[in-house]
């Protein structure tokens, strides 16, 4: 365990959950399901598998204060705010460099902070096997989600033959044939029919020696940045100077699609990326004719509505309305067609700065 590390990515804007989410408090920092945030749940899932002193969180300056509040159980020096927005590859490289400065022989997992996973035991089983494989092979390991429908909004990973490894694991890894970008609906249907595709959940596991070797070959700018961090006498100064100069690019483009040896383990745990208010609705109570809500409502001849009321001192009443999303906060009220849930993020271009 002492050689195992986790890098949790906790940035993002959260515009799809306005008005509850704001730039300084996006989805992973909200209490959407219970008294704990998605970020807190991400940390809790690692308990007993990765020591808390080995958990690193990357966020941004706008969200740093709230992240530190939520992740109070971690050492303060384990939380870093990126000095500029540079997409996932530079962020991951920053995490690799920070861990390499502590232990160049480490094996690490890269995990998003905004996914809902309730089966912690199965999650730990999959992550344990992924860490073991990464530590004992030259492979980069991905964790994929078995598709439940032909979603065109996710990237896909094509799984090939079972991996021939002399490592005993509960979960059989497969060789990765290729990464596929977000498909059109027809291609997503084809992927689902073929049965050998999984959703790319953005969970990666590797040893530092393997990932730095691959980055040296495929993304030397990031490899040089990691080396600078590993040997830096002043990490903060090096991050401030070098990070903003890195080319913005996703980790899939910069590394995963080019790497020489990538394996995939299909998740056995539940998973939800909670991408919109439609996703949230599945976990709310149902009242009346399929009205999904987090609080008691009054309704007459209203159905298929989603109501999230963040004010304990107010009540939402519905009369003769269908298919709405109603979100009430202290300073804003959203009323939207539930069939346009993915378009809520467009409102950010029209809203005043103080409501973003």
Please characterize this protein's 3D structure.
This protein is of the alpha/beta class. It folds into two domains: 4-266, Alpha-Beta Complex (Spore Coat Polysaccharide Biosynthesis Protein SpsA, Chain A), CATH 3.90.550; 277-355, no CATH class. Helix content is 27%, strand content 24%. The protein contains ten helices and 16 strands. It has helices at 38-44, 64-70, 88-102, 120-136, 185-194, 208-218, 220-230, 235-242, 251-256, 277-281, and strands at residues 4-9, 55-60, 79-82, 107-112, 140-145, 156-162, 174-180, 197-207, 262-266, 285-287, 291-293, 298-300, 306-309, 317-319, 324-328, 333-337. The strands form three sheets. A five-stranded mixed barrel has the order 5-8-6-7-9. Strands 10-11-13-15-16 form a five-stranded mixed sheet. Strands 12-14 form a two-stranded parallel ribbon. Helix 1 links the parallel strand 1 and strand 2. Helix 3 (88-102) packs parallel to helix 7 and helix 6 crosses helix 7 (220-230). The protein is globular, with a radius of gyration of 21 Å.
CATH architecture of the largest domain: Alpha-Beta Complex
Query: For the CA atoms, what is the radius of gyration?
Result: 21 Å
Please tell me the overall pLDDT: 95
Strand arrangement, major sheet: 5-8-6-7-9
Quaternary organisation: single chain
| First and last CA, distance | 41 Å
The CATH superfamily label of the largest domain reads Spore Coat Polysaccharide Biosynthesis Protein SpsA, Chain A
Q: What overall form do the CA principal axes indicate?
A: globular
Number of strands: 16
Beta-strand residue percentage: 15-25%
CATH level 1 class label of the largest domain: Alpha Beta
State the low-pLDDT regions, or none. Answer: none
CATH topology of the largest domain: Spore Coat Polysaccharide Biosynthesis Protein SpsA, Chain A
The tally of helices reads: 10
Approximate helicity band: 25-40%
Structural class, by secondary structure, is: alpha/beta
Largest sheet report? 5 strands, mixed, barrel
């Amino acid at each position: 365990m002492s050689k195992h590390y986790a890098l949790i990515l906790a940035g993002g804007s959260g515009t799809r959950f306005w008005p509850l989410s704001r730039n300084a408090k996006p989805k992973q920092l909200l209490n959407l399901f219970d008294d704990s945030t998605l970020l807190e749940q991400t940390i809790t899932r690692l308990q007993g598998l990765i020591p808390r002193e080995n958990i690193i969180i990357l966020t941004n300056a706008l969200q740093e204060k709230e992240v530190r509040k939520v992740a109070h159980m971690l050492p303060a020096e384990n939380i870093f705010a990126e000095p500029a927005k540079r997409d996932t590859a530079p962020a991951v490289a920053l995490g690799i460099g920070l861990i390499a400065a502590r232990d160049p022989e480490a094996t690490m997992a890269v995990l998003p902070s905004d996914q809902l996973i309730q089966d912690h035991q199965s999650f730990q089983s999959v992550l344990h096997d992924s860490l073991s494989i990464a530590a004992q092979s030259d492979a980069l390991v991905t964790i994929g989600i078995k598709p439940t429908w032909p979603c065109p909004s996710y990237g896909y990973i094509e799984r090939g033959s079972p991996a021939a490894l002399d490592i005993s694991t509960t979960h059989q890894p497969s060789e990765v044939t290729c990464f596929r970008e977000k498909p059109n609906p027809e291609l997503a249907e084809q992927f689902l029919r073929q049965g050998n595709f999984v959703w790319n959940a953005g969970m990666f596991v590797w040893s530092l020696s393997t990932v730095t070797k691959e980055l040296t070959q495929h993304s030397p700018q990031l490899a040089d940045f990691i080396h600078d961090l590993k040997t830096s006498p002043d990490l903060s100064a090096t991050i401030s100077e070098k990070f903003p100069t890195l080319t913005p690019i996703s980790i899939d483009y910069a590394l995963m699609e080019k790497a020489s040896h990538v394996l995939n383990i299909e998740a056995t745990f539940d998973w939800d990326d909670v991408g919109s208010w439609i996703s949230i609705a599945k976990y709310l109570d149902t009242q009346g004719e399929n009205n999904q809500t987090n609080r008691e409502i009054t309704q007459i001849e209203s159905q298929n509505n989603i109501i999230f009321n963040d004010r304990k001192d107010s009540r939402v009443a519905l009369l003769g309305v269908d298919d709405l999303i109603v979100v009430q906060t202290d300073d804003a009220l959203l009323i939207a067609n539930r069939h346009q849930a993915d378009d809520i993020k467009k409102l950010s271009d029209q809203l005043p700065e103080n409501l973003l």
